[in-house]
Amino acid sequence: MLAMLLRRVLLGLITVVLVSLIIFAGVEMLPGDACTAFLEREAQGQLLENCRIDLGLNQPAFLRYLDWASGALTGDFGLSANGHKTISEMVGYRLRNTLLLASCAMLTGVPLALFLGIVAGLWRDRSPDLVVSTLAIMAMTIPEFVSATLLILIFSVWLGWVPGIVLTSASAPVSEFFPAIFLPIMVLAMVMTAHILRTVRSSVIEVMASDYAQMATLKGVPYWRVVFGHVLPNALLPTINVVALTIAWLLGGVVVIETVFNYPGLGRMMIDSISDRDLPVTQAIALIIATVYVGVNLTADMATMLANPRLRTLHTRKR
């Protein structure tokens, strides 16, 4: 079991290294560099040379990658092209804000998705299932920017209950973001709830039709004892990876939401850095998002293996 976990960790590290190579190579293949993008018409002569020396662009690409990757391991992503600010300092508050938004959406969406998915699965093809499934399909098919705009129109413009956009600065205390992030949380929670509950519903229906659940019912075991003792523990295991993928999506897929609501998070910062052609910042944010994505999925794989005895038994037989 330990060897299997170590192998998964090693594969995760290799994936992060390969992703960092792809990100660095992709930036390298772009025409020009960070200095020419920042200086624009003034990108010539000694001014251009000094900029490249400051950012380390006068070194070979291989050495620059090693320097960038080793710095990233310690949280040092170098300097931005615009203003030569420390990227780690710029990213710190933005990452905190995105984690705040994602955490609130996760704490809202995951329990709701599990509850609605179980209800839909247990009352299959009946009124609760039809209502929940219809709402889930609507939430999955409506684009995020459309649902965000509708919520702003209803709760901010018409009712005036909460602000429509976030005007808080990125470095403000966490408490100052409430209640301005209520609507972004609602949009993200709607999307993740829809995806997770569909998986939970299918898993509950499948386990309810399994031989051991049918046998327990035939032996006279009370219905709710079958549900809570046999069905739910087995039905919720497959949802671990779906929840992990959704959480990883939250950290990397909040770009639209942060842009619509003017939220000072990591996704909004990436859009701004792309618009300003600040390549070092874009490169750093891409690596952070990729690392978090790999880490979350690795954690989900480990949790699934630890929670499912059949996977451990299968691994032992293979050995």
Structure explained in plain terms:
Helices cover 75% and strands 0% of the residues. By secondary structure, it is mostly helical. The chain has two domains: 2-63, no CATH class; 92-276, MetI-like (MetI-like fold), CATH 1.10.3720.10. Helix 5 (87-122) packs antiparallel against helix 6 (127-141), helix 5 packs antiparallel against helix 11 and helix 6 crosses helix 8 (182-208). Mean pLDDT is 84; it is low at 314-319.
Q: Can you describe this structure in just a few lines?
A:
The chain is mostly helical and 319 residues long.
The helix tally amounts to 15
Q: Percentage of helical residues? A: over 70%
Please report the total strand number as a whole number: 0
The sequence of SSEs as H and E is HHHHHHHHHHHHHHH
What attributes does this structure have?
319 residues, mainly alpha, MetI-like fold, 2 domains, 15 helices, 75% helix
Secondary structure layout plus pairing:
Elements: H1 2-28, H2 34-39, H3 45-55, H4 61-73, H5 87-122, H6 127-141, H7 144-158, H8 182-208, H9 211-218, H10 223-235, H11 239-252, H12 255-260, H13 266-275, H14 279-307, H15 309-318
Helix pairs in contact: 1-14, 5-6, 5-8, 5-11, 6-8, 7-8, 8-10, 8-11, 9-10, 11-14, 13-14, 14-15
